[in-house]
Amino acid sequence: MAYKRKTLRTMPPKTRRLARLINELDSTLRRLKNILPDIADAEIAERAMFNQVRAAKSGPAQDAADEGDTGDLFSAAEQN
């Protein structure tokens, strides 16, 4: 619960300072709770993009690498 200015004025200085810190903590926690779903959505989108890029890189490149390996095997067999 936030302390109002009128309440803070009646408090001793050290208690007032502590109450202000509590208000700031409450405000920060509320902001973090509000931003949490946005961060989760961004993380999910980032993982999806990473998986798409990885799938795009491994698809044709992997096929070309397999063909190269096969060619090396045939050339080695012909030399023997």
Task: Give a nutshell description of this structure.
It is built from two helices and no strands. The chain is mostly helical and 80 residues long. The longest helix is centred in the middle third of the chain and has 67 residues.
Which helices and strands appear, and what pairs or packs with what?
Layout: H1 5-9, H2 13-79
Describe this structure in words.
- With 80 residues, the protein is mainly alpha-helical.
- The protein is built from 2 helices and no strands.
- The chain has one domain.
- Helix content is 90%, strand content 0%.
- The longest helix has 67 residues.
- The termini are far apart.
- The mean pLDDT is 80.
**How far apart, in Å, are the first and last alpha carbons?**
85 Å
Class by SSE composition: mainly alpha
Q: Ranges with pLDDT <50 over ≥5 residues?
A: none
Amount of beta strand: under 5%
What is the radius of gyration? 31 Å
- Quaternary state of this entry equals single chain
Form type? rod-shaped
Helix content estimate: over 70%
**Tally of individual domains:** 1
N to C succession of SSEs: HH
Major β-sheet, in short?
A: none
User: How many β-strand runs?
Assistant: 0
Kindly report the average pLDDT value.
80
* Count of DSSP-assigned helices: 2
